[in-house]
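Q: Hi! First time doing this. I have a protein sequence and I read that you can turn it into a structure. Is that right? Here it is:
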Amino acid sequence: MVFFWCDAWLQAAMDQAQLSFSTSFAEGKPVFGVACLDNEVYVIRRRTADVEVYDVSSYKLMRRLPVNKLHNPLDVAACVQTKRVYIVDGLDPSGKIYAVRTQQTTEDASASSSGSSTSWSVGEMAMNVSVTSTSTVVVTCGKVAQLREFTGDGQLVRQITLNGELVSAQHAVLLDSPPDCFVVCHGWMDDSLHRVCIVDAQDSDCPPMHVYGQQRGSGRQKLLYNASHLSVDTRHGCIFVVDMGNRRIVVLDDKLKQLTDFSVIVDKKRLPSRISLDPERSLLYVACNEWKDVFWTSGAVNVFSVCYQSTGD
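A: Yes, that's right. Below is the predicted 3D structure, encoded as structure tokens:
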């Protein structure tokens, strides 16, 4: 996502987001990641070594991109400059990242297209991935409380150690404003703190600049319970956060003040886990999966239309 600090951002931060369910697609095995790029939506599934590519208008499966040696994809992020998607392999203890070219020629969804991919090792088990406005790739390593930033071809740019409060960091996105700051969600099922934080990369061992959430919670308390993923809308100054345990999306402003929240329950058996925002079409893609007998059993992508109303009106 690209960020610009200007008066428009300040005004936009007062906007209130409204979500309305549009449709579902990609029904099948559990969906562990979704990303949008140009006119396509990319979907990865549990223990599946390819990327499904859907048309953004019809949500028809157009083709599959094979990823050699990919075992269990955990997350995917798209880069508009390089036309690649970056995938985390959750079974690789060294945190393997796969960079997959998206520009293909075949439209035969029944056969895999001859895509090309490269990979590199993060050095630690990786959780989730995001792409910056300068095409670098940010990988969250929750077990060692670090963010590792790479070039698009896998060269390490920097390694950022997070403050000890940020236990089990799950996903991080680099903000352009404030300069060199990350918004990070952290806290796994059994952790006591479930929060979203803004962290200064130049002073990352200090407490976060802004915080949303505290002790994990659910039900009427409306506290975060497993905030697993996030996405940012620069135009309207909103940060969308997946609150998996409460089956909702929380919308925050740039200081992490809650603007609103929305239930994303379409199928009562499923939990939201990953999101991807298409700001050009004002669409939010939410990957939802069923958890049964300690296993993810099935999933789909739910599509929500996003509209904004200014509180200043």
